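P.,

For your records, the input lines for the assembly:
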Amino acid sequence: KEKRRGRGRYGGRKCGRGHKGERQRGNRPRLGFEGGQTPFYLAIPKYGFNDGHSLRRQYQPLSLQRLQYLIDLGRVDPTQPIDLTQLTNARGVTVQPLKRDYGVQLVEEGANIFSAKVNIEVQRASELAIAAIEKNGGVVTTSFYDPRSLEILCKPVVFFLRGQPIPKRMLPPEDLVRYYTDARNRGYLADPSKVAEARLELAKKYGYVLPDISKDELFKMLSMRKDPRQIFFGLAPGWIVNMADKKILKPTDEKLLKYYSS
Amino acid sequence: MGSGPKARRGGPASPPRLTRAPRRVFQEETQPATLNIPLVNTKAEVRFHLASADWIPEAARQKMASMHRNKINRAGELIVNSEESRYQMRNLAICLEKIRTMVMEATEKPKVVSKETTQKLIERVEKMNRERLRQKKIHSNIKQSRKADFD
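C-alpha coordinates returned:
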Protein backbone atom coordinates (compact mmCIF):
# COMPACT_ATOMS: atom_id res chain seq x y z
CA LYS A 1 0.00 0.00 0.00
CA GLU A 2 1.42 3.36 -0.97
CA LYS A 3 2.55 5.67 1.86
CA ARG A 4 0.57 8.89 1.66
CA ARG A 5 1.32 11.98 3.68
CA GLY A 6 -1.25 13.79 5.72
CA ARG A 7 -2.12 17.17 4.25
CA GLY A 8 -4.23 18.57 7.05
CA ARG A 9 -3.80 22.05 8.49
CA TYR A 10 -0.75 22.65 10.71
CA GLY A 11 1.18 19.74 9.26
CA GLY A 12 -1.22 16.82 9.11
CA ARG A 13 -1.08 13.34 10.69
CA LYS A 14 1.49 13.68 13.50
CA CYS A 15 1.83 17.47 12.97
CA GLY A 16 5.58 17.46 13.39
CA ARG A 17 5.35 16.27 17.00
CA GLY A 18 7.01 12.87 16.59
CA HIS A 19 5.74 9.51 17.89
CA LYS A 20 4.28 9.09 21.40
CA GLY A 21 6.14 10.06 24.53
CA GLU A 22 6.68 13.42 26.16
CA ARG A 23 7.52 14.97 22.80
CA GLN A 24 4.17 14.30 21.23
CA ARG A 25 2.22 14.83 24.42
CA GLY A 26 3.77 18.21 25.11
CA ASN A 27 5.24 17.24 28.49
CA ARG A 28 8.95 17.73 27.98
CA PRO A 29 10.93 18.83 31.05
CA ARG A 30 12.33 22.33 31.53
CA LEU A 31 15.22 23.71 29.50
CA GLY A 32 18.58 22.51 30.78
CA PHE A 33 17.29 19.33 32.41
CA GLU A 34 19.48 16.38 31.52
CA GLY A 35 17.32 13.46 32.63
CA GLY A 36 18.51 13.65 36.23
CA GLN A 37 22.24 14.06 35.59
CA THR A 38 23.52 17.26 37.19
CA PRO A 39 22.91 19.72 34.39
CA PHE A 40 25.77 21.69 32.84
CA TYR A 41 24.64 25.01 34.22
CA LEU A 42 24.70 23.65 37.78
CA ALA A 43 27.80 21.48 37.51
CA ILE A 44 30.07 24.35 36.56
CA PRO A 45 31.11 26.38 39.65
CA LYS A 46 30.34 30.08 39.87
CA TYR A 47 33.10 32.60 39.30
CA GLY A 48 32.90 36.35 39.30
CA PHE A 49 33.54 37.00 35.62
CA ASN A 50 30.75 39.50 35.37
CA ASP A 51 30.92 40.94 38.89
CA GLY A 52 30.45 44.66 38.81
CA HIS A 53 30.09 44.67 35.04
CA SER A 54 27.59 47.49 35.31
CA LEU A 55 30.13 49.60 37.14
CA ARG A 56 32.96 49.03 34.71
CA ARG A 57 34.00 51.88 32.46
CA GLN A 58 33.51 51.18 28.77
CA TYR A 59 35.15 52.96 25.89
CA GLN A 60 33.79 52.76 22.37
CA PRO A 61 36.64 51.67 20.05
CA LEU A 62 37.63 53.89 17.16
CA SER A 63 40.03 52.26 14.73
CA LEU A 64 42.50 54.27 12.70
CA GLN A 65 40.98 52.67 9.63
CA ARG A 66 37.59 54.13 10.51
CA LEU A 67 39.13 57.50 11.17
CA GLN A 68 40.91 57.45 7.83
CA TYR A 69 37.65 56.41 6.17
CA LEU A 70 35.79 59.32 7.74
CA ILE A 71 38.47 61.80 6.77
CA ASP A 72 38.63 60.51 3.21
CA LEU A 73 34.89 60.81 2.79
CA GLY A 74 34.97 64.29 4.20
CA ARG A 75 32.77 63.54 7.18
CA VAL A 76 35.43 64.65 9.63
CA ASP A 77 37.49 67.77 9.01
CA PRO A 78 41.20 67.25 9.69
CA THR A 79 41.90 70.97 9.56
CA GLN A 80 40.03 71.46 12.83
CA PRO A 81 40.76 69.70 16.13
CA ILE A 82 38.87 66.40 16.17
CA ASP A 83 36.74 66.06 19.24
CA LEU A 84 34.09 63.59 20.39
CA THR A 85 31.46 66.12 19.26
CA GLN A 86 32.94 66.15 15.77
CA LEU A 87 32.99 62.37 15.65
CA THR A 88 29.41 62.10 16.88
CA ASN A 89 28.18 64.71 14.44
CA ALA A 90 29.85 62.83 11.64
CA ARG A 91 28.17 59.68 12.97
CA GLY A 92 31.60 58.10 13.09
CA VAL A 93 31.06 56.63 16.55
CA THR A 94 27.99 56.19 18.68
CA VAL A 95 28.57 56.75 22.36
CA GLN A 96 25.96 55.85 24.95
CA PRO A 97 26.81 57.71 28.17
CA LEU A 98 23.94 55.98 29.96
CA LYS A 99 25.45 52.56 29.29
CA ARG A 100 28.59 53.26 31.32
CA ASP A 101 30.44 54.53 28.23
CA TYR A 102 33.12 56.97 29.29
CA GLY A 103 34.12 57.91 25.79
CA VAL A 104 36.17 56.67 22.88
CA GLN A 105 39.40 54.72 22.68
CA LEU A 106 41.84 54.66 19.80
CA VAL A 107 42.51 51.22 18.43
CA GLU A 108 45.37 50.37 16.09
CA GLU A 109 43.34 48.52 13.45
CA GLY A 110 44.33 50.59 10.42
CA ALA A 111 47.84 51.54 11.46
CA ASN A 112 49.36 50.35 8.19
CA ILE A 113 47.24 52.58 5.96
CA PHE A 114 46.77 55.59 8.22
CA SER A 115 48.09 58.81 6.72
CA ALA A 116 46.35 61.87 8.04
CA LYS A 117 47.63 64.78 10.09
CA VAL A 118 45.07 65.40 12.81
CA ASN A 119 44.69 66.86 16.25
CA ILE A 120 42.68 64.19 18.01
CA GLU A 121 41.24 64.11 21.47
CA VAL A 122 40.05 60.77 22.80
CA GLN A 123 39.62 59.20 26.19
CA ARG A 124 42.08 56.33 25.83
CA ALA A 125 44.65 55.46 23.23
CA SER A 126 46.96 52.52 22.73
CA GLU A 127 50.64 53.05 22.19
CA LEU A 128 50.78 51.95 18.56
CA ALA A 129 47.82 54.19 17.69
CA ILE A 130 49.58 57.19 19.27
CA ALA A 131 52.74 56.32 17.36
CA ALA A 132 50.86 56.00 14.07
CA ILE A 133 49.23 59.41 14.48
CA GLU A 134 52.39 61.18 15.57
CA LYS A 135 54.32 59.63 12.73
CA ASN A 136 52.04 61.43 10.29
CA GLY A 137 52.58 64.71 12.11
CA GLY A 138 49.46 64.68 14.26
CA VAL A 139 48.78 65.25 17.93
CA VAL A 140 46.94 62.93 20.31
CA THR A 141 45.56 63.88 23.70
CA THR A 142 43.67 61.74 26.16
CA SER A 143 41.23 63.51 28.43
CA PHE A 144 38.55 62.60 30.89
CA TYR A 145 34.85 63.45 30.70
CA ASP A 146 32.54 62.57 33.55
CA PRO A 147 29.19 61.08 32.43
CA ARG A 148 27.27 64.37 32.59
CA SER A 149 29.89 66.21 30.56
CA LEU A 150 30.05 63.31 28.15
CA GLU A 151 26.33 63.48 27.49
CA ILE A 152 26.59 67.20 26.90
CA LEU A 153 29.55 66.68 24.60
CA CYS A 154 27.81 64.03 22.51
CA LYS A 155 24.50 65.88 22.18
CA PRO A 156 25.27 69.57 22.48
CA VAL A 157 22.17 70.94 20.78
CA VAL A 158 19.80 69.03 23.03
CA PHE A 159 21.67 70.40 26.03
CA PHE A 160 21.59 73.99 24.80
CA LEU A 161 17.86 73.74 24.29
CA ARG A 162 17.52 72.95 27.99
CA GLY A 163 18.69 76.41 28.89
CA GLN A 164 21.09 75.34 31.61
CA PRO A 165 24.54 76.87 32.03
CA ILE A 166 27.42 74.76 30.76
CA PRO A 167 28.78 72.86 33.77
CA LYS A 168 32.47 72.58 34.47
CA ARG A 169 34.07 69.26 33.57
CA MET A 170 34.94 67.21 36.63
CA LEU A 171 38.44 65.92 37.30
CA PRO A 172 39.10 62.19 36.90
CA PRO A 173 38.53 59.77 39.81
CA GLU A 174 41.44 58.38 41.82
CA ASP A 175 42.14 55.32 39.70
CA LEU A 176 42.24 57.39 36.50
CA VAL A 177 44.35 60.27 37.77
CA ARG A 178 47.49 58.22 37.30
CA TYR A 179 46.50 57.40 33.73
CA TYR A 180 45.80 61.00 32.77
CA THR A 181 48.88 62.47 34.42
CA ASP A 182 51.13 60.08 32.51
CA ALA A 183 52.91 61.58 29.52
CA ARG A 184 53.14 58.20 27.82
CA ASN A 185 49.36 58.13 27.46
CA ARG A 186 49.46 61.80 26.36
CA GLY A 187 47.18 62.64 29.26
CA TYR A 188 45.71 66.12 29.40
CA LEU A 189 46.97 66.60 32.95
CA ALA A 190 50.53 65.58 32.10
CA ASP A 191 53.54 67.89 31.95
CA PRO A 192 53.96 69.27 28.38
CA SER A 193 57.73 68.90 28.50
CA LYS A 194 57.35 65.28 29.54
CA VAL A 195 54.91 64.80 26.67
CA ALA A 196 57.55 66.11 24.26
CA GLU A 197 60.04 63.66 25.74
CA ALA A 198 57.57 60.83 25.41
CA ARG A 199 57.07 61.72 21.73
CA LEU A 200 60.79 61.37 21.12
CA GLU A 201 60.89 58.11 23.01
CA LEU A 202 58.09 56.68 20.95
CA ALA A 203 59.80 57.78 17.73
CA LYS A 204 62.95 55.99 18.79
CA LYS A 205 61.05 52.87 19.76
CA TYR A 206 59.06 52.58 16.55
CA GLY A 207 61.86 53.74 14.32
CA TYR A 208 60.44 56.77 12.53
CA VAL A 209 61.59 60.36 12.23
CA LEU A 210 59.45 62.57 14.46
CA PRO A 211 58.15 65.43 12.30
CA ASP A 212 58.62 68.84 13.85
CA ILE A 213 55.12 70.21 14.31
CA SER A 214 56.29 73.67 15.31
CA LYS A 215 57.44 74.22 11.72
CA ASP A 216 54.04 73.18 10.44
CA GLU A 217 51.58 75.69 8.98
CA LEU A 218 48.77 74.15 11.01
CA PHE A 219 50.81 74.34 14.20
CA LYS A 220 48.36 76.68 15.88
CA MET A 221 45.47 74.34 15.22
CA LEU A 222 47.47 71.26 16.20
CA SER A 223 48.43 72.79 19.52
CA MET A 224 44.86 73.75 20.43
CA ARG A 225 43.94 72.04 23.64
CA LYS A 226 41.06 72.31 26.03
CA ASP A 227 41.32 73.59 29.55
CA PRO A 228 40.77 70.72 32.05
CA ARG A 229 37.47 72.29 33.13
CA GLN A 230 36.26 73.13 29.63
CA ILE A 231 33.83 70.98 27.68
CA PHE A 232 33.59 72.81 24.34
CA PHE A 233 36.33 74.57 22.47
CA GLY A 234 34.92 78.04 22.20
CA LEU A 235 32.71 78.04 25.28
CA ALA A 236 33.60 78.31 28.94
CA PRO A 237 31.74 76.75 31.87
CA GLY A 238 28.96 78.92 33.18
CA TRP A 239 27.77 80.31 29.88
CA ILE A 240 24.24 79.75 28.64
CA VAL A 241 23.75 79.32 24.91
CA ASN A 242 20.45 80.59 23.56
CA MET A 243 19.73 78.73 20.32
CA ALA A 244 16.57 80.59 19.42
CA ASP A 245 17.99 84.12 19.72
CA LYS A 246 21.53 82.98 18.75
CA LYS A 247 23.00 84.64 21.83
CA ILE A 248 25.36 83.59 24.60
CA LEU A 249 24.73 84.67 28.17
CA LYS A 250 27.69 84.93 30.49
CA PRO A 251 27.43 85.18 34.30
CA THR A 252 28.41 88.47 35.92
CA ASP A 253 28.00 87.64 39.61
CA GLU A 254 31.29 87.42 41.46
CA LYS A 255 30.47 84.21 43.29
CA LEU A 256 29.42 82.48 40.09
CA LEU A 257 32.52 83.62 38.26
CA LYS A 258 34.66 82.37 41.10
CA TYR A 259 32.89 79.03 41.06
CA TYR A 260 33.11 78.54 37.33
CA SER A 261 36.73 79.51 37.07
CA SER A 262 37.24 77.16 40.02
CA MET B 1 71.10 48.14 -0.11
CA GLY B 2 73.68 48.40 2.65
CA SER B 3 74.79 51.99 2.65
CA GLY B 4 76.07 53.56 5.85
CA PRO B 5 73.79 54.17 8.82
CA LYS B 6 71.39 57.04 8.34
CA ALA B 7 71.48 59.63 11.09
CA ARG B 8 68.07 60.20 12.55
CA ARG B 9 66.60 63.19 14.26
CA GLY B 10 65.33 62.45 17.68
CA GLY B 11 67.71 59.58 18.38
CA PRO B 12 71.38 58.91 18.97
CA ALA B 13 73.21 58.22 15.72
CA SER B 14 70.99 55.32 15.35
CA PRO B 15 70.44 52.99 12.80
CA PRO B 16 70.24 51.64 9.66
CA ARG B 17 68.59 51.93 6.40
CA LEU B 18 65.33 50.15 6.50
CA THR B 19 63.85 47.93 3.92
CA ARG B 20 60.25 47.05 4.31
CA ALA B 21 58.99 43.94 2.62
CA PRO B 22 55.31 43.20 2.78
CA ARG B 23 55.13 39.55 1.99
CA ARG B 24 53.34 38.41 -1.07
CA VAL B 25 51.24 35.34 -0.83
CA PHE B 26 52.15 32.52 -3.13
CA GLN B 27 49.72 29.79 -4.05
CA GLU B 28 52.08 27.02 -2.99
CA GLU B 29 52.14 28.11 0.62
CA THR B 30 49.91 26.14 2.90
CA GLN B 31 48.02 28.75 4.83
CA PRO B 32 44.41 28.97 5.84
CA ALA B 33 42.60 30.48 2.92
CA THR B 34 41.35 33.75 4.39
CA LEU B 35 41.22 37.06 2.59
CA ASN B 36 43.17 38.74 5.34
CA ILE B 37 46.52 37.15 4.48
CA PRO B 38 48.09 40.03 2.50
CA LEU B 39 47.20 42.39 5.31
CA VAL B 40 48.08 40.13 8.17
CA ASN B 41 51.60 39.21 7.07
CA THR B 42 53.46 42.48 7.02
CA LYS B 43 57.07 41.66 7.38
CA ALA B 44 59.62 44.19 8.48
CA GLU B 45 63.27 43.66 7.71
CA VAL B 46 66.15 45.77 8.88
CA ARG B 47 69.62 45.38 7.46
CA PHE B 48 72.82 47.33 7.93
CA HIS B 49 76.45 46.84 7.12
CA LEU B 50 77.99 45.62 10.35
CA ALA B 51 81.65 46.43 9.69
CA SER B 52 81.03 50.07 8.81
CA ALA B 53 78.52 50.70 11.62
CA ASP B 54 80.38 53.31 13.61
CA TRP B 55 77.62 53.66 16.16
CA ILE B 56 78.64 50.29 17.64
CA PRO B 57 82.01 50.06 19.43
CA GLU B 58 84.65 48.03 17.63
CA ALA B 59 84.85 45.22 20.17
CA ALA B 60 81.09 44.81 20.14
CA ARG B 61 81.14 44.69 16.36
CA GLN B 62 83.56 41.77 16.38
CA LYS B 63 81.52 39.96 18.97
CA MET B 64 78.31 40.49 17.05
CA ALA B 65 79.94 39.22 13.88
CA SER B 66 80.81 36.00 15.64
CA MET B 67 77.63 35.63 17.68
CA HIS B 68 75.20 36.26 14.85
CA ARG B 69 77.25 34.74 12.08
CA ASN B 70 74.17 33.13 10.63
CA LYS B 71 72.38 36.41 10.20
CA ILE B 72 75.09 38.11 8.15
CA ASN B 73 75.00 37.80 4.41
CA ARG B 74 77.81 37.75 1.88
CA ALA B 75 77.85 41.51 1.53
CA GLY B 76 78.46 41.78 5.26
CA GLU B 77 75.01 43.05 6.20
CA LEU B 78 73.33 41.99 9.41
CA ILE B 79 69.69 41.18 8.68
CA VAL B 80 66.97 41.21 11.30
CA ASN B 81 63.43 40.13 10.46
CA SER B 82 60.16 40.34 12.19
CA GLU B 83 56.72 39.22 11.13
CA GLU B 84 55.10 38.64 14.46
CA SER B 85 52.46 41.34 14.28
CA ARG B 86 49.91 42.51 11.76
CA TYR B 87 51.24 46.02 11.90
CA GLN B 88 54.33 47.21 10.04
CA MET B 89 55.14 49.64 12.81
CA ARG B 90 55.09 47.04 15.51
CA ASN B 91 57.23 44.66 13.46
CA LEU B 92 59.69 47.49 12.96
CA ALA B 93 59.73 48.19 16.67
CA ILE B 94 60.39 44.51 17.33
CA CYS B 95 63.28 44.52 14.83
CA LEU B 96 64.83 47.54 16.50
CA GLU B 97 64.38 45.96 19.91
CA LYS B 98 66.16 42.82 18.66
CA ILE B 99 69.06 44.92 17.40
CA ARG B 100 69.21 46.72 20.72
CA THR B 101 69.42 43.45 22.64
CA MET B 102 72.08 42.18 20.26
CA VAL B 103 74.24 45.22 20.82
CA MET B 104 73.66 45.07 24.57
CA GLU B 105 74.70 41.42 24.70
CA ALA B 106 77.78 42.22 22.67
CA THR B 107 78.83 45.10 24.89
CA GLU B 108 78.30 43.45 28.25
CA LYS B 109 81.49 42.85 30.20
CA PRO B 110 82.15 39.46 31.80
CA LYS B 111 81.34 39.61 35.46
CA VAL B 112 84.45 40.13 37.52
CA VAL B 113 84.07 38.43 40.88
CA SER B 114 86.31 39.99 43.50
CA LYS B 115 88.68 37.88 45.57
CA GLU B 116 86.73 38.57 48.73
CA THR B 117 83.52 37.28 47.20
CA THR B 118 85.10 34.08 45.92
CA GLN B 119 86.73 33.59 49.33
CA LYS B 120 83.40 34.11 51.03
CA LEU B 121 81.67 31.62 48.76
CA ILE B 122 84.33 28.94 49.37
CA GLU B 123 84.10 29.53 53.12
CA ARG B 124 80.36 29.18 52.93
CA VAL B 125 80.54 25.84 51.16
CA GLU B 126 83.12 24.54 53.62
CA LYS B 127 81.00 25.63 56.55
CA MET B 128 77.98 23.89 55.09
CA ASN B 129 79.91 20.66 54.70
CA ARG B 130 81.31 20.87 58.21
CA GLU B 131 77.88 21.41 59.66
CA ARG B 132 76.44 18.57 57.65
CA LEU B 133 79.10 16.17 58.87
CA ARG B 134 78.59 17.31 62.46
CA GLN B 135 74.88 16.67 62.23
CA LYS B 136 75.58 13.30 60.65
CA LYS B 137 77.85 12.31 63.52
CA ILE B 138 75.30 13.41 66.10
CA HIS B 139 72.62 11.38 64.40
CA SER B 140 74.93 8.43 64.19
CA ASN B 141 75.59 8.65 67.93
CA ILE B 142 71.90 8.69 68.68
CA LYS B 143 71.35 5.60 66.61
CA GLN B 144 74.31 3.86 68.17
CA SER B 145 73.09 4.63 71.69
CA ARG B 146 69.83 2.87 70.89
CA LYS B 147 71.59 -0.35 69.97
CA ALA B 148 71.58 -3.09 72.56
CA ASP B 149 74.92 -4.82 72.44
CA PHE B 150 75.62 -8.11 74.06
CA ASP B 151 78.31 -7.06 76.46
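Two observations worth noting. Strands of chain A lie at 58-63, 101-107, 119-122, 124-125, 139-142, 240-242, 247-249. DSSP finds eleven helices and seven strands in chain A.

Regards
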